Recover the amino acids of this structure.
DNA sequence: CGCGTCATTGATGTGCATCAAGTGGTGTGG
DNA sequence: CCACACCACTTGATGCACATCAATGACGCG
């Protein structure tokens, strides 16, 4: 959250985060097509967002953890453009977007903060596009794991150990791969001593090797 | 641009678009890593944006035409996160972002407009992610062509004819395919009488067929 | 006119999807 | 507390879509 605010400004911002909401594992935080009112700051838990085509194909477009913001896609059109589903019991701060805009008129740093958050989402999606468009299966998984552990580490968790909150199928959907391919890549990494996989518990033994794999850069023009 | 403004508000907004800049074909509008100051509204011309990994891989992340906004990725970090290159001689309105934020504090509708534009970019990227993650070559090309012609049509151009401003390789890069695959897909569409391709001039003879191809939905789970 | 760039088309290879069988962990009801 | 069913996962065998390699053709520009 933005720094260097007066107490008056802080009061304003407090009004935003007044309402909280608990979401059970497997439940929707919001669904594509439903009216957009608020964005959400994840307090605890873990979510996935997924987009759907007219013809029923769908794909995981991101995983979100505590401290991250979800729902920005709804601003345009006043309707949510993706589904958000809790992968574990979670709690979010409900932040009505019209309130945010109103307070942003008075608190300049909040306005800028909102812009940064939206820009960050654009940049994040850019890197997903890059991943999907130009990386091979193992490179994708390596990039995914490094990204995940880096975000967890920034939140005070271990730099090497993590619990995957999603299934292999959901990882595959996010990475544009089939679950079998994800599974095989995990096994290969494990064989090579790069990671230790026990169910959804993962230990990264050799992060440097993962970075090398991610940057294979051999083939693609 | 936002509607229903007072003349005073319009004056404010006029201050934004005072500066224009011409970009020659092949030149950068901005480069990844350079300081971010402004976003740009394309007045005339055509651009591509491309993202790059540390190891030198790069990919086209979008094509932008007149009336579209470019540069939103730079807000976070105050550095551009992608390259923007003109595919033909172009002209843009330079809109200093700090000015936008300043005026947004006074003109509520402008603030909301900015949010919508950023949200639209997020939604657009979501659909690119969906395309890259779950569609086959011909489906991708069909979706690409339909999207392109739809945007051109919204700008008063033909619903069926267009000139491709980019090479096959750039299309391929955007779609996560090799140029040969793009070329073959074009030839296949032409054989089937769905389109007429003469170099970069394209005529869509059967838009419905393209929509069907895009929504093939047969295989993928 | 000749060269460079872009595009087409064919032949071959390969990475991942698909299909299929089997394992292990978890939760439920007897 | 155990038996059963279910689901997530692993692993192997096979096939196919697209990449890769290579040769040729069509523009456009100096």
């Amino acid at each position: 959250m933005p720094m260097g605010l007066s107490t008056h400004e802080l009061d304003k911002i407090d009004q935003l985060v007044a309402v909280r909401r608990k979401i059970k594992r497997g439940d929707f935080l919001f669904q594509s097509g439903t009216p957009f009112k608020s964005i959400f700051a994840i307090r605890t838990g873990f979510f996935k967002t997924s987009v759907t085509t007219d013809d029923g194909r769908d794909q995981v477009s991101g995983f979100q953890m505590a401290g991250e913001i979800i729902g920005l896609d709804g601003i345009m059109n006043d309707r949510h453009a993706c589904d958000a589903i809790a992968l574990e019991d979670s709690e979010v701060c409900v932040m009505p977007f019209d309130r945010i805009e109103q307070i942003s008129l008075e608190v300049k740093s909040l306005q800028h903060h909102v812009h940064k958050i939206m820009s960050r989402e654009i940049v994040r999606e850019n890197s997903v596009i890059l991943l999907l468009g130009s990386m091979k299966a193992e490179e994708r998984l390596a990039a995914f794991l490094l990204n995940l552990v880096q975000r967890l580490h920034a939140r005070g968790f271990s730099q090497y150990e993590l619990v995957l909150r999603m299934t292999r199928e959901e990882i595959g959907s996010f990475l544009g791969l089939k679950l079998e391919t994800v599974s095989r890549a995990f096994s290969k990494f494990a064989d090579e001593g790069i990671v230790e996989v026990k169910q959804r518990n993962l230990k990264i033994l050799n992060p440097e090797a993962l970075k090398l794999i991610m940057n294979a850069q051999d083939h693609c023009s």
